Structures are given as C-alpha cells and as structure tokens.
C-alpha cells in the first residue's frame, strides 16, 4: 500500500506564503478533489425505454414488402406508414388496446417466447370486406366481436404479414415466424408476465379510404439475447453500398478534369549550365526524335505515343498502353 506524501518544512512554508499572498484559494483547491454528483434518470435508460438497435430497420423492410403483398391480396391500393416504437409493461399495453380487437400470437424461432400482432376493428373489417369482394370506400363501424369466418379471413392476411416480417428479419437475424393462434380477448393473451417489458411498433394501414392500426409487440426478454448482433447489424448497414449513390459517384468521377502531359525526354545538367541558359539555347534530350513519347495522366505513366500534326495542331497518336500492376509496368500494344 502506497504511503501518503508528507510535505517538507520548506514546502509547508511556501504553501502558507502562497495562501497569505492570495495566489492560492483553499476553497477552490479543495473543490477540485471532491467528486461531483451526476444526475441519473432511472426511467430514461435504454433498458427502461426498450431501446432495441436496428429494430426499426426490420419494420422498414416489412413495410416495403407488405405494401405490395397486401395490395395484391386485397386488390386495392394499400399504404403503410410507421407511427413509432414505444416500451410498455405488458399489462399496461393490454389496457391500451381498443375493443373489439383482433390479435395474432406468433413464435419467433429460434428465439424464446412469443410475440403479438394486433389490429383494430377498422382494419380487420376492411380486410374482410375487401377479401369478399366488397367495394365500400368508407370505414366500417361495426362494434361487435368477429365471427369465425371473419377470423379465418384475417388469419390468412396475418400469415402474409408474418411472411413479410420474416423476410425483413433475415438481413439482421434469420428467424422463422409461425402463427400460433388468433384471439379477441386481451385477458386471454399472456405472452409474458404482466410486469415484463415489451417493445411495440405501431403502423397505420390505409386501405383506400379506410385507415386502420396494427401494432407489433415483442417482449424485450425475447430479443435481449441477440441485442449485440442487432448492434453489429447497424454497423453492417452503415457500410452497405447504396447502388444509387455508387451510380451517382461514378457519373461525377467520369466528368472530373485530369491533367495529361507528354514527356519529350530528359536531360541532366549542372546548376551552372542552368544559370547560363539563354533564349535560343538548345538542350539535348536523352531520346532520339523517332522514339515514342511517354504520356502521363496526373503524373502517372499511362501511354506511349507517336507525335504528329492533325488539323494544323500538334497531336500524339497512342501506340501502347502501360498497365500498372504491383509496381511493374506491362506494355500492351
């Protein structure tokens, strides 16, 4: 254990003199050694908010897939917009569900536990109306439970939803989604204990003039084992190549100006000869006039060419291409 340093008599006298002269203020010096309190909000941490990295990327992919699938299934123009994610205790989330509500409980293999997708009556009845060939453009306002036939029709659409959601999960973490059962009573849904945290994603579904709501619910305990992999997926996504960006960059590069120079030859002279040069003097180069000339692009040797005249201007005809590979030049005639 290290011993504390003890000041010598001379150091103590120097310190007292500095205090008396006002060069050192004891209060400020003591405050530097004291720790400062840092506020910590227990209700605003990542774990409490249910922050899951890259989960929004999954739902963005789902929206792209399901917009097309649902439009083809219902033969109507369908638009899907993401509202936002939020974390709840599972029991608190169930209190937010409207009545009636249509819910599908599904499994995410190989992850543990189950998840939930819920849709309000406006969307469910719009799906039933469209599948059965209805042409109503107004939202149905039926306030009753769903029949077995209606549940079967909604289940068919939910299977499409899970298939598209499964495809959206694949780039980050491949899972297999299986619909376990349909349910209308929130009290009978227990995918996790009431006090457990879940993260939700709400989307608005526009089926022509009808606007419905669909909510995806995933327990945090289900995706907690792959949180690190989802973070890695974020880095992969940042490094992914955007084809449109690559195309635009290539187009701009093709229009970039380059300096092209033709080297007639080289000569070695002394500093005295350089200072004595006058107008009209001749410098002897190291190449005969019949030899090909070196062409450089941005100071990099690129071609060999033969000088000449074209349309009254000095010109050069490319005779060879210099290929640079591993620092070695290969001439290609």
Name the strands of the widest sheet in spatial order: 1-5-6-3-2-4
Output the structural class.
alpha+beta
Distance between the termini: 78 Å
Number of strands: 11
As a whole number of angstroms, the C-alpha radius of gyration is 37 Å
Question: Key terms for this structure?
Answer:
single chain, 333 residues, alpha+beta, Chemotaxis protein chec, Surface presentation of antigens (SPOA), 6-stranded antiparallel beta sheet, 5-stranded antiparallel beta sheet, flat
Layout of strands and helices, then pairs:
Elements (H helix, E strand, L loop, with lengths): L8 H13 L4 H8 L12 H4 L5 H20 L3 E12 H7 L4 E9 L4 E7 H11 L16 H22 L6 E8 L13 E11 L2 E10 H4 L3 H13 L3 H12 L5 E4 L7 H5 L17 E5 L2 E11 L2 E13 L2 E5 L1
Antiparallel strand pairs: 1-5, 2-3, 2-4, 3-6, 5-6, 7-8, 8-9, 9-10, 10-11
Explained architecture:
By secondary structure, this protein is an alpha+beta fold. It folds into two domains: 46-240, 3-Layer(aba) Sandwich (Chemotaxis protein chec); 257-332, Surface presentation of antigens (SPOA) (Roll). 36% of the residues lie in helices and 29% in strands. It contains eleven helices and eleven strands. The strands form two sheets. The protein has a six-stranded antiparallel beta sheet. Strands 7-8-9-10-11 form a five-stranded antiparallel beta sheet, with no helix packed on it. A hairpin with a 2-residue loop joins β5 and β6. α4 packs across α7 (148-169) and α6 (121-131) crosses α7 (148-169). The longest helix has 22 residues, at 148-169. The model is unreliable at 42-49 and 234-239 (pLDDT under 50).
């Amino acid at each position: 254990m290290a011993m504390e340093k003890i000041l010598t008599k001379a150091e103590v006298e120097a310190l007292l003199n500095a205090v008396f002269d006002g060069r050192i203020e004891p209060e400020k010096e003591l405050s530097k050694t004291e720790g400062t309190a840092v506020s910590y909000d227990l209700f605003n941490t990542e774990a409490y908010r249910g922050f899951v990295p890259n989960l929004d990327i999954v739902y963005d992919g789902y929206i792209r897939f399901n917009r097309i699938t649902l439009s083809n299934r219902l033969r109507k123009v369908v638009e899907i917009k993401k509202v936002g994610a939020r974390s709840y205790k599972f029991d608190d989330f169930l209190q937010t569900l409207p009545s009636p509500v249509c819910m599908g409980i599904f499994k995410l293999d190989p992850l543990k536990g189950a998840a939930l997708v819920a849709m309000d009556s406006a969307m469910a009845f719009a799906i039933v109306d469209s599948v059965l060939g209805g042409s109503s453009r107004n939202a149905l306002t039926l306030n009753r439970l769903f029949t077995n036939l209606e549940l079967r029709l909604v289940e068919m659409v939910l299977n499409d939803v899970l298939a598209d959601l499964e495809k959206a999960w694949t780039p980050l973490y491949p899972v297999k989604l299986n619909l376990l059962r349909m349910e209308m009573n929130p009290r009978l849904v227990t995918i996790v204990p009431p006090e457990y945290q879940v993260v939700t994603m709400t989307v608005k579904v526009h089926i022509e003039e009808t606007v419905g709501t669909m909510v995806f619910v995933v327990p945090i305990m289900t995706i907690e084992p792959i949180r690190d992999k989802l973070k890695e997926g974020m880095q992969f996504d940042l490094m992914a190549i955007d084809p449109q960006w690559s195309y635009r960059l290539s187009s701009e590069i093709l229009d970039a100006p380059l300096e092209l120079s033709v080297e007639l030859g080289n000569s070695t002279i002394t500093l005295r000869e350089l200072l004595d040069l006058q107008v009209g003097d001749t410098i002897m180069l190291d190449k005969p006039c019949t030899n090909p000339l070196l062409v450089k692009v941005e100071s990099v040797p690129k071609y060999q060419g033969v000088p000449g005249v074209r349309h009254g201007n000095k010109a050069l005809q490319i005779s060879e291409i210099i290929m640079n590979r591993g620092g070695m030049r290969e001439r290609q005639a």
